[in-house]
Amino acid sequence: MALRARIADSLKQAMKDKAADRLSTLRLINAAIKDKDIAARATGNDDGASEDEVLAILGKMSKQRMESARAYEEGGRLDLAEREREEIEVIEEFLPRQLSEEEVAQAIDGAIAEQGASSIRDMGKVIGALKGKYTGQMDFGKVGPMVKERLSA
Asked: Using CA atoms, how far apart are residues 139 and 136, in angstroms rounded to an integer?
């Protein structure tokens, strides 16, 4: 089932179950996707956001909430930190399984070999290949330094 359809079905189910917190998070997800659709239409893409773009939106939303939860914990607002974590759980239901450290390392090595990368100048090609295959499955903030380390060695 397409990601958008899964989100819409979950939204309907949350309404039926009267799950207010879950419904709120699902509405935020829908709003972010619709914003991306509108931006895509403005550039001439009438199809709206692609599946990969939706995955990127979900990944970004999850990451934002992790940072917020950390900030709330540091500020002593554990109730707000817990709410952020609950939102993360709802968002991550729609994200693909995250790759382990070993799987990420193997994916990086495979992309380097596939692209024929030999120097730090090829880093963009390697990251592009990884994003094409593993969007939503790895944290590219952590992947960048790992690719750089392998290419500079």
From this structure: 8
Residue 46: exposed, middle, or buried by beta-carbon count in 10 A (0-12, 13-18, 19+)? exposed
Whichever domain contains 144, its CATH number is 1.10.10.410
Whether residues 115 and 69 fall in one domain: no
> CATH number of the domain that 50 lies in?
1.10.1510.10
Task: Give the number of domains in the chain.
Answer: 2
Digit-coded pLDDT (tens) for 92-126: 898 888 888 888 888 888 888 888 878 888 888 88
**Are the beta carbons of 91 and 61 closer than 8 angstroms?**
yes
Cα separation values, 8 from 5, 31, 63, 67, 109, Å: 5, 12, 22, 27, 37
- Which tens digit of pLDDT belongs to each residue from 122-141? 888 888 888 888 877 887 77
Q: What pLDDT, on the 0 to 100 scale, is given for residue 64?
A: 93
8 Å CB contact between 148 and 120: yes
